Amino acid sequence: MRRFGSAGAGLFAILTTSGAASAADLAARPYTKAPAPIAAMYDWSGFYIGVNGGGGWSRNCWDIVTNILGAAVVPPVSEGCHTASGAAVGGQLGYRGQSGAWVFGLEGQGDWANLSGSNGPSLLAGGGGSDRTKIDAFGLVTGQVGYAWSNVLFYVKGGGIVASDKYEGFITATGFVFDKASETRWGGAVGAGLDFGVAPNIVVGVDYVHGFMGSRNNSFYFTGPLGAFSRTDRISQDIDIVTARVSYRFGGPLIAKY
Predict the structure, then answer these.
(1) Is the pLDDT of residue 17 over 80?
(2) What is the pTM of this model?
(3) 8 Å CB contact between 74 and 63
(4) Whose CA is closest to 134, among 171, 175, 166?
(5) How many CA within 13 A on the CB side of residue 80?
(6) What span, in angstroms and rounded, lies between the C-alpha atoms of 92 and 110?
(7) Which of left, alpha, beta for 213 (phi over 0: left; psi -120 to 50: alpha)?
(8) Could you give the CA distance from residue 80 to residue 119 in angstroms, rounded to a whole number?
C-alpha cells in the first residue's frame, strides 16, 4: 500500500507540474481593436418642394430709338436709368442626386413680384415726363452643382430666367400715365445658395440669382381710346434676386457613413 501511495503522489506531482508548464507556454490573448464608430450623414437626394420669400432689384436704362412720327432717332437719345426694387414671394420644385459629398440637381422656381422704379423728368412730354419699370413676376429653370458637409450644402447654379415687364411714361408732376408697353423677357441666370438640413426632410436656406436680361426694343402706345403709336425705346435690364427658402424633401432618412 505504501508503494501504491508513493507512486500515486509522484504521478500527481508530475501531472500538476506539466499542466502548469503548458499553461505558461500559451500565448497571450490577442488585442482586438474596437470597431470604428458610425457617423450619420445627411442624405440630400430626392424630390423637394417649398416656398420662398425675399426681394429683388432691377437696373433699367432707357434710350429712345424711334420718335412719335416713327422716324429713327440717330443716335439714340438716353432717357436715363433707374432701379426697380421690391418684394417677391413664390415657390420652388426640384430634384437632387448625391454622389459622395457632391450633389447635383435641377430646379424650377416661380415668384410673384412687386419690383418698381422710375426716373425723371426726362425728355418726354416736353421735359416733364418720367419713365417707370414694373416687374410683376419671374421664373427660373436652373441646374445645380453643390458640395455637402453632412447637413450643410453649398451650391452654384445656372440656367434661364423669364420676367413679366411693364413700362410706362407718365407726367412727373401729376403721375398721369400717357403711354405704356409690356413684354415677357428671357435671359440667362447664374447664382448660388446655402441650404441647411434641419430635419431629415426639412431644408431651410438662402438663395441668390443674377439675371442677364439684355437689351430689347419696345413699342409704346398712348393710353387714350385710340391707342396710337407713341415711341420705341431700347431698354436694357439686369435683375438680382435674394430669397429665403423652406423646402420639404421626399427622400430617405440619414444614412450611415463609416
Answers:
(1) no
(2) 0.80
(3) no
(4) 166
(5) 17
(6) 7
(7) alpha
(8) 7
